[in-house]
Design a protein that fits this description.
- Two copies of one chain form a homodimer.
- By secondary structure, chain A is of the alpha+beta class.
- Chain A contains 15 helices and 22 strands.
- In chain A, the strands form six sheets. A seven-stranded antiparallel β-sheet of chain A has the order 18-13-17-14-20-21-19, sandwiched between helices.
- In chain A, helix 1 packs antiparallel against helix 2 and helix 12 packs antiparallel against helix 13.
- The radius of gyration of chain A is 23 Å and the shape is globular.
- At the A-B interface, helix 6, helix 7, helix 14 and helix 15 of A face helix 6, helix 7, helix 14 and helix 15 of B.
């Protein structure tokens, strides 16, 4: 097949194992039978399990560099791994070799209050960084749903999350990073400044590159002062179309919301069954709620936000909302956002087989796209569950089934996925908003961007990793192992 | 010299000229003696004048593609050019060949009010886009000082401007683009969505690449609803150090200012002489003003902004400001911002020889850096003028002299520049915030980023432009013409 690269790797010999052991010591290395099976997959084992020969847990840039040097000299593939919370097989070692775990590189190194930045190691968990920043009176704005992901993983997939509509995505908060190249060389990209025009942005190339161009070993992230007050509103609608049509109205009304989340009646029902308590309305005065928005506004105080709150009410009424339900107590906010954050877990707990897509479509195409996917699912015997970040067009869509056997599920899910990704491309959307490509979505990426762009990506991969040893088989590399 | 590439280009023969003429017609081509000398330089002719053999004014993606195809097949260098307002020689045809002007590609194609984006051709002037967006009730946030630059040029240098402290830089508003590769192939990068994790970001690689990787022929830009109200404040200080130290205080106070501009007494005096009217204070109750901040807040109304306005007063007083002068009438705002925008013109009008730097340093290093550069200037017989975007650490610094001859000025300016860029690197700054690298700052870029990163840039250039025909000699390519 065009673009395939024929490549043979060496196995990790006892000599190479000793070299690796001399870098990380006895207690941070696993090999052979002792490798924890968790390293063979991420949160989507349905895309296949692949065992590494060795797992090394690095603690510093120097150790990562030493490991990469050993592996590049010995032609051993290396797959970097954070918390393993990915959904596209990005951290799965397709060709064996070494899994390089950054989970012990979990130190928040320092805050620079004059420049409002924090320096961290990449294995810091998102929830830990978020809490620590708040304790410093600051906020790290990116807020992906999976709070136990590493920040390094978030940077590698350019994760977005719930607050992207106001604050932007992870990319917008990465000012600088230290990177170990596949050769073991260490480079620094970016600086503690928000503005630069100093050569090609290798920093932005590295963000979202899923650990295929280099291994991030240190990050400098921009923080903002913590907003003093936030208030959320549940806005239920009778139809999905009306619900989605309200989104650009809210954006145009200059309310600058922090979040505009979307969910339909199905997901609310699943979430209620899972959490045991109904959080979101399913019925208003006898009329069924088809879909709702969850809108959050931030400001200095409730008083200061009153003009925006009143305007949100007017816009919602004009857009056909059934009501605007205030979520203002600390307890209620916690319950509502916990329910929102549990959507995926609720689906997983109640579904035997599950495949996922994370497309982004222009905001005004959301309703049409959802209707298309549901209909494709219904034709194929696949149940579609979805929720998403309506404010930015990023939809998390799950193809679910309980009945068929696994092979039959794969066959049916593939039909739905093929049709849906093709429709997404037709609607000028992107294959992934924040879950990335990994190895599971590679062919959809190629179809979406076309051969010329895909081949530019392959050439860029070769510039950084001429030996093709870093996270091979991901994003844009189609490897064929030599016989 | 290491990294130099030996290359020989063909001259534009009568046959090639006819092929080019068949693309753009008789009225949009200049050649030989008829080439307007303006195409031999940008706004810094001090970096050298270089004449193209031919100038083609393209009007469409198809024409740009056809020109690139002819030039790639015939080994002719092509230098893209917008309005020619650059300051580092980026649009200057170092090796002759074709200048491809995008200035006729100046159409605002369409607005998409559902997704809050605008589609434009790259030759639209920044001032025209800004005014047109306002007329649609929207705002294009990037606001570089040079309003007659093309937006394509702004994207190619990732220009920042006065509002970057709140809204970010040009990079943050580019959602998608059409690009003609050096081969003449047309690719599309990005989509009308704000969130993506779909392969390496070639979109972000293209932004800030100064027309060396491809020619941008169409842009999709994000807009925001127009803020209802803005108010500015002049905040004078007795010392430069106190003035700069106030900047992080203002940022930490959660005021979310749109701009924090900095200027010292010298520049205020030059500006007054130039415009004929004193706009900024030079003296408060008998005490000389050493430097001032110009702070702008935006919101729904003056009433809604009162808490922030009061807080700015408190922060300024705490930071030792001499006063806080309100700029709230339309007439006064216009005068103040016009004076601010005229700083560079004022310097140019009153200076015989001038060299420039556009470094970015961490905000808490601004004062130390300015003091260093002034002292380096004084030691060398060079007057330093400066102003800048204090909120983001981007300083526009001018090395000026009237007395020596041009060769002597170059010698002295180089001493100051060499020392200052080295100090910038020591302070963890960047070579350029928004003026970019062109051919004038290439060696400073190499020194700042180091050989490994510089060579990665060279390899990336070769991926996009293996024949090295597009804007050669810029950013990271060191060409040596073969004898």
């Amino acid at each position: 097949m065009e673009g395939k690269i024929t490549k043979t790797y060496n196995k990790v010999s006892p000599e190479i194992l000793e070299q690796l052991r001399s870098v990380v010591g006895d207690r941070r290395i696993q090999f052979g039978e002792a490798v924890n099976p968790v390293y063979s997959h991420d949160e989507m084992p349905i895309y296949g399990k692949y065992f590494p020969e060795v797992v090394c847990e690095a603690e510093s840039t120097e150790e990562v560099a030493a490991i990469m040097k050993i592996c590049s000299e010995n032609n051993i593939p290396v797959t970097p791994r954070g918390a393993g919370t990915g959904l596209v097989g990005g951290c799965v070692p397709l060709y064996g070799g070494v899994v390089l775990s950054t989970s012990r590189m979990n130190k928040i190194l320092s805050y620079d209050m004059n420049n409002l930045v924090v320096h961290i190691q990449p294995g810091v968990l998102l929830c830990d960084l978020a809490a620590d920043a708040i304790a410093h009176g600051l906020m790290y704005p990116p807020d992906p749903g999976e709070k136990t992901a590493t920040v390094g993983g978030n940077v590698s997939t350019n994760a977005g999350g719930m607050r992207a509509v106001k604050y932007g995505v992870t990319r917008d908060y990465v000012l600088a990073m230290t990177v170990v190249l596949p050769s073991g060389e260490v480079i620094k990209l970016g600086k503690t400044v928000c503005k630069t025009s100093s050569g090609y942005s290798l920093l932005h190339l590295m963000i979202g590159s899923e650990g295929t161009l280099g291994i991030i070993t240190e990050l400098t992230l921009k923080l903002i002062p913590k907003p003093a007050y936030d208030i959320s509103f549940i806005v239920p609608f009778k139809t999905v179309e009306e619900c989605i049509a309200a989104v650009p109205e809210i954006k145009l009304a200059n309310l600058d919301p922090q979040s505009i989340e979307f969910f339909d009646a199905d997901i609310v029902e699943m979430s209620s069954r899972f959490t045991g308590e109904p959080i979101f309305p399913v019925n208003m005065d006898g009329t069924a709620v088809a879909a709702s928005l969850l809108v959050t506004l931030v400001g200095d105080s409730q008083e200061a936000l009153m003009p925006q709150i009143r305007q949100l009410g007017q816009v919602a009424a004009g857009a056909g909302a059934m009501d605007v339900l205030v979520v203002d107590t600390a307890e209620r906010k916690k319950a509502v956002w916990a329910a929102r954050s549990s959507f995926l877990t609720a689906i997983e707990a109640q579904t035997r087989f599950l495949d996922e897509m994370d497309v982004v479509v222009p905001v005004d195409k959301i309703a049409k796209f959802l209707i298309f996917v549901r209909s494709a699912g219904a034709e194929t015997g696949i149940t579609i569950r979805n929720f998403g970040h309506a404010g930015d067009g990023n939809l998390h869509i799950y193809a679910c089934a309980d009945d068929p056997d696994e092979a039959e599920f794969h066959r049916r899910a593939k039909i739905v996925m093929d049709k849906s990704y093709a429709k997404c491309t037709e609607f000028q959307g992107q294959v992934s908003g924040e879950h990335a490509i990994g190895h599971a979505k590679k062919e959809y990426l190629r179809e979406s961007v076309g051969d010329t762009v895909f081949n530019l990506m392959v050439q860029i991969k070769k510039v950084f990793d001429p030996l093709m040893i870093l996270n091979p088989g991901k994003v844009c590399t189609n490897l064929e192992e030599a016989e």
